[in-house]
Amino acid sequence: MQTGLLRQLQTANGLVDFCSNDYLGFAHSPALRDAIRQADTAHTDALTGATGSRLLAGQTDLADALETNLATFYKTEAALLFNSGYDANLGLLACLPQRGDVLLTDELIHASMIDGTRLSYATRHRFRHNDVADLAEKLEAATHQTAGQLFVAVESVYSMDGNMAPLRELCDLCDHYGAALLVDEAHATGVYGPNGEGLVVAMGLQDRVLARVHTFGKALGVHGAAVAGPVVLRNYLINFARPFVYSTALPPHSLLAVGCAHRHLQANPEAQHQLHDRVRYFRRCITQQLPHSVWTDSTSPIQCLIVPGNDNARRIAHTVQEAGFDVRAILNPTVPAGQERLRICIHATNTEGEIDRLVGWALLSDQSRSDQHRN
To answer: Among all residues, which ones are annotated catalytic?
Structure first.
């Protein structure tokens, strides 16, 4: 509290959304909402709750059928549902690498992955963000330190920078050292791939990645997550992933919603195309109009303006919100000191006019700060 970092809940209050992870606008889609309502009505034998974990009373034919469909969609052998992406990452990384194994993680992985590694008995080392040479050095050293399994954990699209992992190079490196690659696809699911299957599938690497975590609360606009991978991995997680074993299962409504969201995704490919068009438009605008501002190197929907200093980032975010745009500040310690930022998320539903107004505000603000600096 003394450092001014006490977190508080804040609603958007009708501001133009440049904040949420609802990249395709599905959370606001009347068509998807109607499809979910119709699925609920048709599934007349559904309970209002799961009534227990899936190892007890919570197992249903509906969950089994959904996992089969998800495995097909994500081009893998099997899928296992979790209540959230946080649960999936926590369970996967806590139980899969064992004592005597070595787990190498990108220094910017999500907090849920970090928490999973902290619960693992494996030896953990971090490598510099997206630095394949640094990872190679650490893999080489690890091969001389242990006879155990090597694991590498990354995000495909990083949530606070918006840049992408060099997945092809990572696969080559993991193949060379016999390491298993684990990829969190939270911010790529629905956004990349021929049908929104994620960046791994978009690059044709699904057979070279041991496990992928796909979450449904971002671009798909619903809730829950799944780990995609081989059948043996699914069976292992059913027995040893504590967030799966000891959590009440997703209720039938959520399972139906996940299925509807995936069908809606396949039926509306234009949403993904429009999203990428809007991202390219935004990048052109900031390149032409804000050439001296510092942005993260991202071509994804996550665009970040570096505004060093917690107080400075918080103050500018408040000013942006007063101008009618929902943009939030990301502060230290969530990001390193000096790398505080405004995190701007582009959506398929954002208009070019909204982007023009946001960039125009940023241009005026940038000019105002320059004038103050000169004075």
So the answer is: 21, 110, 155, 159, 184, 187, 218
pLDDT along the chain (375 residues), means of 10: 63 88 98 97 86 96 97 98 98 97 97 97 97 98 93 97 98 98 98 98 98 98 98 98 98 97 98 98 95 93 95 92 93 92 97 96 63 47
Architecture label for domain 43-267: 3-Layer(aba) Sandwich (3.40)
Cα 119 from chain centroid? 21
How many of the other CB atoms lie within 10 Å of CB of 61?
A: 7
Helix, strand and coil in the chain, % to nearest 5: 45, 15, 40
Domain boundaries, the chain: 16-27+269-367, 43-267
Q: Which two tokens stand for residue 321?
A: 């919100």
Structural class in CATH, domain 16-27+269-367: alpha beta
211 CB contacts (<8 Å, ≥6 apart)?
92, 96, 180, 182, 183, 227, 228, 229, 233
